[in-house]
């Protein structure tokens, strides 16, 4: 990942002088690339955040995720450490470091927010020293959140036990993670959160609010099937949405063993559409929801025993920085 390390913003500094150079960035008012707010503003950080760019991360993707964390930090000022592992064929013990800082105004002139980034590039030979280096870069009195992005194997990621064990939340994206990522026995499995589930929040909210208008018994009476249809680029979202529907129907005391849960691919080459369909033994009863993420339009259609209903609605997925917030704090 030398190209990724070079592409991310910041000033390269000696690894042993990261803390000293960060302090200098705050104190040297008006220096190149330095913030111009008072040093006390730098102490407003609320969390430690580690972005781990796995070996499957490409350059453009790495830059996008870095920008996502910057946008997230504008709402939740953080000390951010970005990990850029080098490929296994890089010999020796190599650790390089960059520092980057940004300050900006919040909702008012008095709401000053500052974030600090430490970017570390390291070879496999430097792994035994990495966790010690990361711990030095973090603020000891703040909670830690760890985002593992595009890691190549769950077993290899499990070597980062310091981060996995200490983090209040471990964030993964099951759409791009190894197939066993959600079931893998992580050191702190209760801390694991799936970003796919988080970015589906608007869909879960709008569908849940519509169905909540009906008594649970009315929703499950004669229910024999639940299908989530999707475009190929939304297969992970469909899988997570189907599992969520299963849990919510179980909470309604549905006899899950008699209900067929399935998914259906609409267009393998697209990533626009999601749809939900409830199938009942009584063919006059139905529930359908369909949404197009490009147009932002969705439609509800239902007849659940109290009259037919058709309702237009909006549909979207959470923006990446908002999905991070949802996964970390809720």
What does this structure look like?
It is a single chain. The longest helix is centred in the first third of the chain and has 17 residues, at 59-75. The chain folds into 2 domains: 2-195, no CATH class; 201-320, no CATH class. It has an 8-stranded mixed β-sheet, sandwiched between helices. 31% of the residues lie in helices and 29% in strands. The protein starts with a helix and ends with a helix. The chain contains 11 helices and 14 strands. A hairpin with a 6-residue loop joins strand 4 (95-105) and strand 5.
Topology:
Blueprint: H1 2-7, E1 11-13, H2 18-27, E2 47-53, H3 59-75, E3 78-85, E4 95-105, E5 112-122, H4 127-137, E6 144-149, H5 154-157, H6 161-166, E7 169-172, E8 192-194, H7 195-199, H8 201-211, H9 216-220, E9 223-230, H10 235-251, E10 260-265, E11 273-280, E12 286-292, E13 297-303, E14 309-314, H11 320-329
Parallel strand pairs: 2-3, 2-6, 3-5, 6-7, 7-8, 9-10
Antiparallel strand pairs: 1-4, 4-5, 9-11, 11-12, 12-13, 13-14
Helix pairs in contact: 3-11
């Amino acid at each position: 990942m030398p190209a990724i390390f070079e592409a991310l913003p910041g000033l390269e500094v000696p690894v042993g002088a990261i803390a000293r150079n960060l302090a200098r960035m705050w104190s040297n008012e008006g220096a190149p690339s330095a913030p111009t707010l008072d040093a006390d503003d730098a102490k407003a950080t609320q969390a430690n955040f580690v972005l781990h760019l796995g070996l499957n991360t490409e350059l453009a993707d790495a830059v996008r995720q870095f920008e996502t964390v910057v946008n997230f930090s504008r709402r939740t000022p953080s000390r951010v450490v970005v990990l850029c592992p080098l490929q296994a064929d890089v010999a020796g013990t190599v650790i390089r470091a960059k520092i980057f800082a940004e300050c900006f105004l919040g909702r008012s002139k008095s709401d000053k927010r500052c974030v600090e980034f430490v970017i570390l590039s390291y070879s496999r030979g430097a792994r035994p020293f990495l966790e010690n280096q990361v711990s030095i870069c973090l603020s000891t009195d703040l909670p830690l959140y760890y985002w593992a992005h595009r890691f190549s194997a769950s077993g290899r990621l499990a070597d980062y036990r310091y981060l996995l064990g200490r983090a209040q939340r471990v964030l993964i994206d099951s759409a791009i993670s190894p197939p066993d990522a959600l079931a893998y026995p992580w050191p702190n499995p209760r801390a694991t959160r799936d970003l796919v589930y988080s970015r589906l929040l608007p869909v879960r909210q709008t569908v849940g609010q519509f169905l909540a208008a009906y008594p649970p018994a009315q929703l499950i009476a004669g229910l024999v099937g639940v299908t989530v249809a999707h475009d190929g680029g939304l297969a992970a979202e469909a899988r997570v949405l189907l599992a969520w529907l299963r849990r919510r129907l179980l909470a309604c005391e549905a006899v899950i063993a008699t209900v067929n849960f399935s998914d259906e691919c609409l267009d393998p080459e697209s990533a626009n559409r999601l749809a939900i369909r409830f199938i009942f033994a009584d063919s006059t009863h139905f529930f359908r929801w369909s949404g197009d993420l490009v147009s932002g339009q969705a439609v509800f259609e239902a007849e659940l025993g109290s009259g037919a209903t058709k309702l237009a609605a909006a549909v979207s997925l959470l923006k990446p920085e908002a999905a991070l917030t949802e996964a970390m704090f809720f």
